[in-house]
Amino acid sequence: MEPEVRAAFVNRPRLVERCPGFLGLETFTDSKDPALFYLVTRWTDEHSFRAWHRSEEHHLSHRGIPRGLKLDASFTEVVVLDRISDPIGGPTWEEHAADSSPLLALQLSRSSLVHFIVAGLDGTVRSCNQAVLNNLKLQESAVVGLSLWRHLTDRDAAALRQQLQEPRRGDDTLLLNFVDATHSPYTVQCHLDRRPDSFVLIGEPVSERRLQEELLHLNNQLTVLNRENVRRGKQAETALAEAEAARAQVADLLERITDGFVLLDRDWRFAGINRAAARVLTQLSRDPQRLIGRGIWDEFPEMVGTVTHQELLRAAAEQVDVEFEFHYPPLSRWYRCRAYPTRDGLSVFYHDITTQKRAEAALRERAEALTAEARRKDDFLAMLAHELRNPLGAVGNALKVMSLAQPDSPEYARAREVAARQVQHQSRLVDDLLDVSRIQLGKIELRREPLSLAQVVRHTVEDQRNALEAAGLTLSAEVPDQAMPVLGDRTRLVQIVGNLLHNAGKFTPPGGRVTIRLACNPAAGQAELTVADTGMGIAPELLPRLFDPFTQAETSLDRSGGGLGLGLALVKGLARLHGGTVRAESDGLGRGSRFMVTLPLTADQVVAEEPAVSNARQRRLRVLVIEDIEDAAETLRDLLELWGHEADVALSAIDGLETARRIRPDAVLCDIGLPGISGYEVAAQLRADPATASTRLIALTGYGAPDDRRRSHEAGFDLHLTKPVVPEELQKALGEIGSTLGSGT
C-alpha cells in the first residue's frame, strides 16, 4: 500500500482521501534540527513515517524519531525523500506542524509542478511558490499583493468566491482554470484549505488527457452507481439525485476542457456535444443542438471512407481505444483525435494541431531546401573543378610542347594559340562568377552612356562570327540601319549579346544555324533582340529555372559543352539592370530554342561612338612593375620590353618606392595586395613625393569590385585593371600615357 499512497499524495493530492483506511496526516520538525521535517500518515491499522533530507537517501533508525511520536509494531522503515533548508515564511515550523495540515508537506516540497497559494478572503494573494509564477509566466511583484481573481477565468473566480462563503464540505477539491500572461488557459486540480481570515490553494496542473480520463472514470462511476442503487433497492428519488449530481459533474468537466468532445450512441447518432466542439460546428454553419439525435455519417457524408470513419468503426467493433490524426478539408485544419468505447457508444475527443502540422511542414520544406542547396553547392564545386582543370591541363601541355618545339614550327604556333585560348577561357569563367556574385549583392555599377544598340550588336556579331563558323555553324544577323539609341553600359551590352551567341553555339551541333535579329517596337518604346538556334532545345521542366545561376541542360560526365551555367544568369541580371527583360522559348528537345531580350529606348538621339584605336607608333616609356609574385613580374617585364618599353621590376613595396624615387618612371604598374605595405599606401606615398607626384599609376590587381576601384582612385591611381590583364587593354593604356607625355600635358 505504501508506494501507492505516497505516489497518490505527492502527485495527485485529491486521491489521498479515497485510499481505504486513511484517517489523516500529521507533520513534525526534529527538536534538534528544525530543518529536518517529518510527515506521518495515519491509517486504521498502522502508521507510516516519512522524513525530508536533501543530500542522502537511506533508512533512518528509530532514534531519529522525535519525542512524543508513537508508532505501532507494524512500523518497519523510514524513507528519506528531501530536505528543506529554510522555511517559506509566515508561521514557524512548529506552528505549521501543530496545524496538522496535509498541505504543509506539499508547500515545503517546493515542487516545480505543485501550486501553493495563500490568499486573504478578499482574494488578495499573500504568498505563492515558484511553480505558480512559472506557470503564470509572471514575476512575483505581478502576483503577490494583487487579486487572485484576475488570474482565474471569470466563471471559476465566481465559483471559488461562492465556495468560500458556503460551509465546509466533505471534499474541498475543485478544478480551477488559470490564465497565464499570454492569455492561455491551463487547469489546476486544487485542495482548498480554509483559515479564519485566509484560505490556501494547493494542487498541480492537469493535462487535457487526464481530464478526459477523469471524465471516463466519472462516467463509469455513474453507471456503477445506477446499478448499485437498483441492486440495493434504494429509493428512486435518492438514486435520481445522485445520478443527476454525477451527470452535472460530467457536464461541468466537458464544458471546461479545451478539446472538442462528441458523444456518439451505438447507432452513430450524436448524443452530446461540448462547447469546444460546438464552436467548430458553428464555423461549418451547423447548429449543434439540431445535430443531437442525428447520425454522424448522414450529416457528414464527406467523412465516410476517411481515416476518421475507419478508426471510429474499429474502436466500436474491437472495443479498443484509438488515437489518430486527420485533415478536415472544409476547414483546412488538422486534428488529433482519441476515441474511447463506452457501454453506450463512443466518447470522442479531438483538438486542433494545425499550427504544429504547419511548423512540421515548414521544417520539412526547410530541410529539403537545405538538402537541395547542399546538392547544388556540391554540383557547382564539381563543375568548377572540372572547368578549371581542363584549361590548366591544356595550358600545361601547350607549355611542354613549346619547350620541345622550334619557335618557328607549326607545333609551337599551335601550342601558343591553345595556351592563349585557354587562358582567355579561364579568365572568362572567373569574370562570370564574380559578375553573378556582384549582381546578386547589388554591387555592380553600370557606366551608362547613349549608345547605338544596332552598332553594339553588329560589332559583337563580327567578334563572335569566327568562333561560331569554326564550330561548323552558320551565323546570320538581321540588324536594321537605324541606330536604336539606348542608355547603357557598352561593355555589359556586349556581354549580353555575346553570352547569348556563345550559349547558342555551345548547344547547337555542327551544321546548325544561329540567327540574331534586332527590331524596334515603337509602341512599347523598346528594342527587341532575338537569338534563335536549331540546337538541342530546352526541356519544359528546365525553362522555369533556366536563368538561375549554375543551371545547365547538360549534366553528362564529359561536359562537352563546358561552362559553369552562369552565362544566362548574367544575361538576366544585366538586362534587368538596364531596365529590360529576358525570356526563353523552345518547342522541346531537339527543336532549337529562342531567347528574347527587351531594352528600353532612350529619347536622346545622341549616340556615343566607339573610341577609335590609334595606330600611331607608341612612345617608348620607362615603366616600373611592383609585383611580389616573381613569375608574374618577370613575364610582364618581358611583355613590356617586347612592346619597346624600358621596364624595371621591384618585388616588394619598399623596393618599389626606392626604385621609383631613383629612376622616376613614366608609369608604375602596381599590385594592390602586396605584403607589408599595400598598393594603396604605395600610391599615396608616390603621390605625396614631389619627385613622383606626376607619375602615371596603374593598379594591376585581382580585386575588381566597385569599392576596390573607388579605393584605388582615392589612393591616387589613374587606372584600375583587373587580373588577368588583357594585353590589348594594357597596351592601349600605355599608348594613351605616351600620347599625353608626347603632347607635353
Structure, explained:
- The protein is of the alpha+beta class.
- Among the domains are: 1-110, no CATH class; 364-437, Orthogonal Bundle (Helix Hairpins); 446-600, Histidine kinase-like ATPase, C-terminal domain (Heat Shock Protein 90, 2-Layer Sandwich), CATH 3.30.565; 622-742, Response regulator (Rossmann fold, 3-Layer(aba) Sandwich).
- The strands form six sheets. It has a five-stranded antiparallel sheet, with helices on both faces.
- Strand 12 (322-328) and strand 13 (333-341) form a beta hairpin.
- The longest helix has 51 residues, at 354-404.
- The radius of gyration is 45 Å and the shape is elongated.
- The relative contact order is 0.04.
Query: What CATH architecture label of the domain at 446-600 applies?
Result: 2-Layer Sandwich
Assigned CATH class of the domain at 446-600: Alpha Beta
Shape: elongated
Name the beta content range. 15-25%
* Quantity of strands, as a count: 26
Give the helix tally: 21
* Major β-sheet annotation: 5 strands, antiparallel
Specify the oligomeric state.
single chain
Spans with pLDDT under 50 lasting ≥5 residues? 1-25, 42-110, 555-562, 612-616
Provide mean pLDDT, rounded: 76
From the helix content, strand content and strand pairing, which structural class follows? alpha+beta
CATH superfamily of the domain at 446-600: Histidine kinase-like ATPase, C-terminal domain
Q: Alpha-carbon distance between the termini?
A: 110 Å
CATH topology of the domain at 446-600: Heat Shock Protein 90
